């Protein structure tokens, strides 16, 4: 029995679903539409890569490669030297997607490129665009010193319900430290969770409201530079966290929703974003 299945979304577009946890990839409006809105457009990739110079993208959660493919298609003809680094523990979703590309037609034009990536762990998309594959636990792989710090982080692992270790405060503190302070980096993600927003703030990120996508009225963005956020979370949002029943940061891999403690709230309110 396969780990994955093909499902039809309400939009009529088809996507993957992991059988074990029943989590659907890009469940709202489909893989490519979501990837373009949530990551390509919010990251302003075309604008930020319009000038010469190195530009590094971390694609965390390669999955079936929709996010990476959307970025590649948007950046064809760009002036920057782009490195896309995709991370995942397993290639099973992408291998299943390739075997079912008649249903997932966004992969068809890039089949040879993806096969090269799988075989060689690097594929040259264009003379100035390279795609790199890193297999393993991202929490460990990201610490490698030979890995360039990103300008853009497409953060798209499974949700905190089924992949909790990728959402803890300790992990995001390590991620924040891993970024180069001299390189403004924007992180885009599908979540609207108060607990995750609190976790990111306490990890040292500036955090803001992200784009609406599908049925989600808003998502979340984070950065090491406040200037990259169009709509930072406000002091009004902060005040409401005191009584929210799901505002405690995610410290443990088995996280239970809870109201933030007085001690944690003092630390949260002390973040520079709210000063």
Task: Name the features.
globular, Rossmann fold, 275 residues, three-stranded antiparallel sheet, 11 strands, single chain, eight-stranded mixed sheet, alpha/beta, 21% strand, 10 helices
What does this structure look like?
With 275 residues, the protein is α/β, with parallel strands linked by helices. It has one domain (26-274): Vaccinia Virus protein VP39 (Rossmann fold). It is built from 10 helices and 11 strands. Strands 6-7-5-4-8-9-11-10 form an 8-stranded mixed β-sheet, sandwiched between helices. Strands 1-2-3 form a 3-stranded antiparallel β-sheet, covered by helices on one side.
What is this structure, in a nutshell?
The protein is an alpha/beta fold and 275 residues long. The protein has helices at 31-41, 45-48, 66-75, 92-99, 111-120, 138-141, 169-178, 194-203, 235-240, 262-269; strands at 4-8, 14-18, 23-24, 54-60, 81-88, 122-126, 129-135, 152-155, 186-189, 206-210, 219-223. The model has no long low-confidence stretch (mean pLDDT 94).
What order do the helices and strands follow? EEEHHEHEHHEEHEHEHEEHH
Total domain units = 1
Number of strands: 11
Overall radius of gyration: 18 Å
* Helix content class: 25-40%
List the helices and strands and how they pair.
Elements: E1 4-8, E2 14-18, E3 23-24, H1 31-41, H2 45-48, E4 54-60, H3 66-75, E5 81-88, H4 92-99, H5 111-120, E6 122-126, E7 129-135, H6 138-141, E8 152-155, H7 169-178, E9 186-189, H8 194-203, E10 206-210, E11 219-223, H9 235-240, H10 262-269
Parallel strand pairs: 4-5, 4-8, 5-7, 8-9
Antiparallel strand pairs: 1-2, 2-3, 6-7, 9-11, 10-11
Helix pairs in contact: 1-3, 7-8
């Amino acid at each position: 029995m396969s780990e994955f299945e093909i499902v039809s979304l309400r939009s009529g577009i088809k996507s993957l679903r992991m059988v074990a946890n029943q989590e659907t990839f890009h469940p709202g409006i489909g893989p490519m539409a979501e990837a373009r809105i949530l990551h390509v457009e919010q990251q302003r990739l075309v604008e930020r890569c319009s000038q010469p110079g190195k530009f590094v993208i971390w694609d965390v959660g390669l999955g079936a490669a929709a996010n990476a493919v959307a970025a590649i298609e948007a950046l064809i003809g760009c002036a920057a030297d782009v490195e896309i680094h995709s991370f995942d523990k397993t290639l099973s979703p992408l291998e299943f997607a390739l075997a079912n590309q008649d249903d997932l037609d966004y992969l068809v034009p890039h089949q040879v490129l993806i096969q090269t990536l799988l075989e060689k762990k690097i594929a040259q998309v264009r003379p100035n665009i390279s795609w790199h594959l890193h297999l393993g636990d991202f929490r460990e792989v990201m610490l490698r010193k030979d890995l360039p710090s990103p300008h853009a982080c497409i953060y798209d692992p499974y949700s905190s319900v089924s992949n909790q270790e990728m959402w803890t405060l300790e992990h995001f503190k390590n991620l924040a430290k891993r970024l180069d302070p001299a390189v403004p980096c924007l992180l885009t993600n599908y979540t609207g969770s108060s607990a995750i927003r609190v976790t990111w703030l306490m990890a040292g990120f500036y955090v803001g409201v992200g784009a609406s996508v599908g049925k989600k009225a808003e998502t979340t963005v984070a950065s090491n530079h406040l200037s990259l956020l169009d709509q930072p979370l406000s002091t009004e949002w902060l005040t409401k966290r005191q009584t929210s029943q799901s505002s405690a940061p995610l410290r443990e891999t088995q996280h239970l929703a809870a109201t933030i403690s007085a001690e944690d709230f003092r630390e949260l309110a002390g973040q520079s974003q709210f000063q």
